[in-house]
Amino acid sequence: MSLVAPTIRNGGVDCVYVMPNLMPPLTTVKAAVEYRSKLQALEPHVDFLMSLYLHESMTVETIIEAKRAGITGVKSYPAGVTTNSSSGIVDYASYYPIFNQMEQEDMVLNLHGECPSKGDVTIWNAESEFLPILNTLSQSFPRLRICLEHLTTAEAVETVKSLGERVVATISAHHLHLIVDDWAGDPMNYCKPVAKTFADRTALLHAASSGNSKFFFGSDSAPHPVTSKYSREKIAAGVFTQPYTTQLVIEALETAVETGILKAGDVTLEKISGFMSGHGRAFYGLEKSSNARIKLTKGTEKIMDILENEDGSLQVVPFRRGEKTRTLTWLL
Predict the structure, then answer these.
(1) Do the Cβ atoms of 300 and 26 come closer than 8 Å?
(2) CB within 8 Å of 245: residues ≥ 6 apart
(3) In 10 A of CB 143, how many CB atoms?
C-alpha cells in the first residue's frame, strides 16, 4: 500500500474505487473505514471510494451501516476465480436480501464477471458463462446499480448494451492492449479475466471510444510482487498499470487508429474525457471533478522497469516496462 498509493496521480487519476479483495478481505464497515484512513494519509490528494467484499457474514444491517459510513458499494467475487477470492460466493440467490437492501440504499454492486472453473467452464469461457447471471440480477433488481468489472469479450459488451441503463461495465487499460498471445507464456501479462481474441479486443476499443456512457475506465491495477508473478506455485493474476493508466489508454486508442481498427474521428477529446472520467463519475453519483486538468506530452520518458521499496525487499513490475510513454503533468 505505501509503495503504490503515491503513484496513483502519476497515471492521471485523483479518484479511486478501492476493491476489497485484500488479505484478509474487507468484509466489515470498520475494516473498510480504517483502510480508507490509511490510504488518505498516504495520498491526501486522491478521493478513495470504498467497497465491501460480498461474504457469507454480511447481513442487511451491514448494508445499512455501510451506507451511513459513506461506503459506495459491494464487490462480488465468485469463489476461487481471481486474486484473494477464496472467500467468494457460489450461490447468488442466497444474497438476494443483501441485493434488495443495496437497491433500497442506492449502493453499487460490482461484479467480477466469471464463473468458477468446473467441468466445461474454463478461464477461456468463464466470462461468457457468467453473463446469464448478470442478466438475471438485472431483471431481479431493476433499480440496483450494477457494474460488470473489467470485461474482456465482445459478447459481454453486447450484453451490457442490451440491459437496462443501471447496468454498466468498466474496461481496463491492459485489456485494450492485450490478446491471448500476449499473456500465454508471459506471467507479467496474466490477469483475470484473461485477455481474449483480436476480435474481442477490437470490441473493447470500439466500446471505449463510442461515447456510450455504459462503458468507462476501471484500472483493475494489481501490484503483485515479482515473486508472486514468477512463482513455482500458482501465478498471481493481475497487471500493474496504476502509474501510467491514462497514458496506456491513450496509446491503445492511438495504436488502434494507426492500425485501422478505429478511425481518427472515433477518438475525440470529448469521448476520451467521458470514458476516463465523466461516465464513471455520473454512474457513481459524484460531483464533477475539480478544475484540475492533465497534460500529456510526447517525449523521451519510458515506463519504469521496476517499482521497489528502499531496501529492495518488495518489487513490482509495471505493464509494458521499459517502453516509451507520454509524460503526464497535472495543471492546477
Answers:
(1) no
(2) 11, 12, 13, 173, 217, 219, 221
(3) 10
> For residues 305 and 303, what is the distance between their CA atoms, to the nearest angstrom?
6
State the residue for C-alpha cell 481496463: 172
Considering only CA atoms, give the Rg of the chain. 19
Name which of 236, 224, 202, 74 is nearest 149 in CA terms: 74
Length of the chain: 332
| CB 296 within 8 Å of CB 247 | yes
User: What share of the chain in percent tops pLDDT 90?
Assistant: 88
Averaged confidence pLDDT in the chain? 94
User: At 109, which amino acid appears?
Assistant: L
**C-alpha–C-alpha distance, residues 278 and 301, integer Å:** 28
Q: What pLDDT is stored for residue 152 in this prediction? A: 98
Distance from C-alpha of 27 to C-alpha of 57, rounded to nearest angstrom = 8
Q: What does the pLDDT read at residue 289? A: 66
Phi, psi for residue 48 in degrees, rounded to 5: -110, 115
Where is 330: in which H helix or E strand?
strand 327-331
> How far, in Å, are 49, 123, 309, 316 from residue 2 at the CA level?
18, 32, 9, 13
pTM of the model: 0.95
DSSP conformation letters of 230-290: S-SSPPPP-B--GGGHHHHHHHHHHHHHHTTSS-GGG--HHHHHIIIIIHHHHHTTPPPP-
